Amino acid sequence: MDKKQLSLKIKAEAKNLGFFACGIAKANAVDPDVVASYKKWIGQGGHATMAYLENYPDKRFDPRLLMDGLQSIVSVALNYAPANTLPQGEPQFAAYALGKDYHDVVKGKLRQLAEILGFDTYRAFCDSAPVLERYWAVKAGLGWTGRNHQLIIPHAGSMFFLGELFLPIELCYDEPMPSRCGKCHACVDACPTHALSFVDNTAKTQFDARNCLSYQTIENRGDIPSDLSDKMGDTIYGCDRCQTACPWNRFSQPTDIPELQPTDELLNMKREDWLLLTEEDYRRLFKGSAVKRAKYSGLMRNIHEALD
Ligand code: SF4
Ligand code: SF4
């Protein structure tokens, strides 16, 4: 099979496995302007307490250091737009957290993809290594980075998990896609805590995790500053406002991936159930879920901040 046929086969098999989109980028050093803005963001503390984002800059800025002989990065996107959400009026979760842990689901499918194609030498990643996932998804032609700092897939939106298959073979490469945000700033306007803001006199935005409710309710282990917790509304884990405001998400279709469907128990949780949630309930409700990241204590902190 020549590299063109193999590239097409990789994409076709990725679709068969349920990935919504798949593209291929040549593995190279990351563009200097992207490196400079990432370093500036870290230098300004925009990553808050997520110190892991400072680690392994050499590998983050040159993925060839993550795998001997790396030539190609296959970027995939798995749809998590929810088919079922928690009832309106009840406490809410960010859509990505409703099903099973996406790390396991995406990496499992990437390993299946490698097996189907007979690749012995590969690495599979999903938010699990110093890989600039959105950057590589853009390079692989999946979409563009929106002003909400999410990957936007045209006519599909941003509710996608990203993953990468690293391969030591040459393939046919896709073209990056230019931004189609145009003059829109709906995501910036929708952010209740000004975590997104325009860089002076430009159409570019910057993101400050310290002001982001998603960071505060998932990653922050301390208290949530009261000026931010006041803006949580009824969402007790994460925040989707800058995604739901995005006009491209009007095109999103509910995911049909079985592992990403919420359980009936989660869908039936009411305000009073959350307030009385025990650690045992928490372990049962979120077995195999990414919500474990916040730990029981973190979720209870969120519940009381939002609902008391
Ligand atoms: S997730 Fe919420 S708080 Fe964070 S940037 Fe988006 S809208 Fe703002
Ligand atoms: S809301 Fe508008 S500016 Fe923000 S990512 Fe979507 S299209 Fe771009």
Unreliable spans are none
How many whole angstroms does the radius of gyration measure?
A: 20 Å
Enumerate the distinct ligands: iron/sulfur cluster
Briefly note the structural class of the backbone. alpha+beta
- The count of β-strands is 10
**Outline, from the CA principal axes?**
globular
Please outline the major beta sheet: 4 strands, antiparallel
**Which range does the strand content fall in?**
5-15%
Average pLDDT for all residues = 97
Gap between N and C termini, in Å?
62 Å
- Counting DSSP H or I runs of 4 or more residues, the number of helices is 13
User: Portion of residues in helices?
Assistant: 25-40%
Order of helices and strands: HEHHEEHEHEEEHEEHHEHHHHH
Give your account of this protein's structure.
- It is a single chain.
- The chain is 33% helix and 13% strand.
- By secondary structure, the chain is of the alpha+beta class.
- The protein has a 4-stranded antiparallel beta sheet, with helices on both faces. The protein has a two-stranded parallel ribbon with strand order 3-10. It has a two-stranded antiparallel ribbon with strand order 5-6.
- The N and C termini lie far apart (62 Å).
- Bound molecules: iron/sulfur cluster (SF4) (2 copies).
